[in-house]
Specification:
Elements (H helix, E strand, L loop, with lengths): L7 H52 L3 H11 L4 E5 L15 H13 L4 E7 L16 H5 L6 E9 L5 E9 L5 H43 L12 H47 L4 H26 L8 E3 L1 H14 L3 E7 L4 E3 L1 H19 L1 E8 L3 E7 L26 H4 L4 H11 L3 E6 L5 E8 L4
Parallel strand pairs: 6-8
Antiparallel strand pairs: 1-4, 2-3, 3-4, 5-7, 8-9, 9-11, 10-11
Helix pairs in contact: 1-3, 1-5, 5-6, 6-7, 7-11, 9-11
C-alpha cells in the first residue's frame, strides 16, 4: 500500500505508535469510566443517606414542626421544600440508569413504605419538570467532563400523604481533577512516543549504516572497513561484512595478477607468430596468417578488457563528464569519425576515469559501426546522471535488446568480424556501468536507430 511508510524505521514506528496509542486510549477510557462510576456512587450514596435521615425526621413532626425543620434544613447544597409532586404521573425509570441506581440506594435507607419519585440530572429541579428521566450525558457519567452541578432529585410522600422535595446539588469540584488527569496522561503519552521513536531509531540505524557501507563497497572495493561497535548483533554483522570485503579484495588482487600474467604470456607467442608469418613467401598465406593473428589478438585483448571491466583497482576520482565527452569526440574526429554532443549539463561525478571512458567509447563505437555517426546527450537530476548515445542505424529486434549484453553474442546480420566485432563491447560497457552502481539500457528509437542510455546514480554521504 502507498499509504504505508517505505522505510523500516517508518513501519516499525507506525506499528509501535499505533499499538501504544490504542493501549493508552483504552486505558484512559477504562480509568475515567471507573472514576466516574465511583464518584457517582459515592455522591449518590451520600445524598440518599442524608435524604433518608431528613425524611424520618420530618415524618415524626406535625405540619408546623415540619415547616420549622424545613426552614432550618433548607441550606446549600441540599434544598428541602414541602411541595406538590413535580411529576403528575408515575414515570418509568430505565434499569441500570443513574436514576435507577439512586432510587435503589434511597429505598435501601428508607425501606419500601414510602412512595418515591427520583431523578438524577445536571439541571436544577425547575428545568426538569418536563423531563423526568433525569439522564446525564455518557461522558459526564464516565467522569471525563464535569457538569455544572450534579443534581440528585427526590420527592418522598410522608405517612400523612404530604410530599417533601429534595434537591441535592453536588458541585463540579469533584470533577476538577479530570482536566489535570487528562494533561498528565497526555504528557505520559508524549514521553512514551518520544522514547519509542528513539528506540526504533537506535534499532534501525545499524541497518542504515550497513546499507550505506554496502552501497559504497559496490563503487569502491577499497573502502575503509566498518567500525565494529554497537550491540552484539551489530558487531557480528560488521565483522562479517569486513571479512567479506577483505576476501573480495584478495580475490580481485589475485585475479588482477592472473590477468596480467595471461596478457603477458599471450602477447609474446602472438608476436613471435606474427614475425614468422611475415617471413612467408606466399603472400596469400601470409595475409591469412596475419589476419588470423590480428583476430586472435583482438579477441584476447577484448576478453581481458571484459574481465577487467569491474576491476576496482583504478582509483575513484571526480570526473568532469562534459570534458570527458569532448575528449571522446576529439579522438573520434582524429580517426575521421562523426561524433556530435547535442547537450551536456552535468556536474562532476565520482568514478574510475579510464573505465568510464571505456564504457562510453564502446557505446560510441557501436553507434559508428552500424550508423556511421553518434549523437551524445548528457543530463542530470538530484539522484542520477544520464548519458545517452543515439544513432540512426537499423536498431535491434525488441526480443534481443537484452540478449546483446551477453558475452560474445553477435546479431545474425553481423557475423563478420569486420562489422560484428567479438561481441564483447556492450558486455564490457554494462559491466562498467554496474561496477559504478549504475546501469545500461538499450531502446529502439521511434524514427529508427538505437538509443543507449548509461545511468549513474548519485549516492548520498
Amino acid at each position: 500500500m502507498r499509504l504505508l511508510p517505505q522505510s523500516l524505521f517508518g513501519r516499525l514506528a507506525l506499528i509501535l505508535l499505533s499499538g501504544l496509542l490504542l493501549a493508552q486510549s483504552l486505558s484512559t477510557l477504562l480509568q475515567f469510566h471507573d472514576r466516574g462510576q465511583r464518584l457517582f456512587q459515592a455522591s449518590g450514596a451520600q445524598s440518599a443517606e442524608r435524604i433518608a435521615e431528613i425524611v424520618r425526621l420530618l415524618d415524626g413532626e406535625d405540619e408546623a414542626g415540619r415547616q420549622q425543620l424545613v426552614t432550618i434544613l433548607n441550606a446549600p447544597p441540599l434544598k428541602v421544600s414541602l411541595s406538590m409532586p413535580l411529576w403528575a404521573n408515575s414515570q418509568a425509570i430505565v434499569a441500570g440508569s443513574p436514576s435507577a441506581e439512586f432510587r435503589d440506594r434511597l429505598e435501601t435507607y428508607l425501606g419500601k413504605r414510602y412512595d418515591l419519585k427520583v431523578a438524577v440530572s445536571d439541571q436544577p429541579a425547575m428545568n426538569i419538570q418536563h423531563n423526568s428521566s433525569g439522564r446525564m450525558t455518557h461522558m459526564q457519567h464516565m467522569g471525563m467532563t464535569g457538569p455544572d452541578a450534579l443534581v440528585f432529585l427526590a420527592q418522598v410522600q410522608l405517612s400523612d400523604g404530604s410530599w417533601v422535595t429534595f434537591e441535592n446539588r453536588i458541585g463540579n469540584e469533584i470533577f476538577a481533577n479530570s482536566t489535570m488527569l487528562l494533561v498528565n496522561l497526555a504528557i505520559l503519552i508524549i514521553i512514551v512516543l518520544l522514547v519509542t521513536l528513539i528506540a526504533v531509531r537506535l534499532a534501525t540505524r545499524p541497518l542504515t549504516l550497513l546499507a550505506k557501507q554496502a552501497d559504497k563497497l559496490g563503487n569502491d572495493i577499497n573502502q575503509p572497513p566498518m567500525v565494529e561497535t554497537g550491540s552484539t548483533e551489530m558487531r557480528h554483522a560488521s565483522h562479517a561484512f569486513n571479512t567479506m570485503q577483505s576476501r573480495l579484495q584478495r580475490f580481485i588482487e589475485d585475479r588482477s595478477r592472473l590477468l596480467s600474467a595471461i596478457s603477458h604470456d599471450l602477447k609474446t607467442p602472438i608476436t613471435r607468430m606474427r614475425l614468422r608469418a611475415e617471413m612467408l613467401d606466399n603472400a596469400e598465406q601470409r595475409d591469412n596468417f596475419i589476419r588470423n593473428l590480428d583476430e586472435m589478438q583482438a579477441i584476447t585483448s577484448e576478453t581481458l578488457d571484459f574481465l577487467r571491466a569491474d576491476d576496482a583497482s583504478e582509483n575513484v576520482e571526480d570526473v568532469n563528464i562534459c570534458a570527458l565527452l569532448e575528449t571522446i569526440k576529439e579522438q573520434a574526429a582524429e580517426l575521421g569519425q562523426k561524433v556530435e554532443i547535442k547537450s551536456c549539463e552535468v556536474a562532476t561525478y565520482p568514478a574510475r576515469p579510464q573505465a568510464l571512458k571505456r564504457c562510453i567509447v564502446n557505446l560510441v563505437d557501436n553507434a559508428i559501426k552500424y550508423a556511421g555517426r553518434a549523437e551524445i546527450t548528457a543530463s542530470e537530476s538530484d539522484t542520477a546522471i544520464s548519458i545517452s548515445v543515439c544513432d540512426n542505424g537499423p536498431g535491434i529486434p525488441e526480443q534481443q535488446l537484452d540478449t546483446v549484453f551477453k558475452p560474445f553474442f553477435r546479431l545474425e546480420t553481423s557475423r563478420s568480424r569486420e562489422t560484428g566485432g567479438t561481441g564483447l563491447g556492450l558486455s564490457i560497457a554494462r559491466n562498467i556501468a554496474l561496477s559504478h552502481g549504475g546501469d545500461l539500457q538499450l531502446i529502439n528509437r521511434k524514427n529508427g536507430g538505437l538509443k543507449a542510455t548509461l545511468t549513474l546514480l548519485r549516492h548520498s554521504g
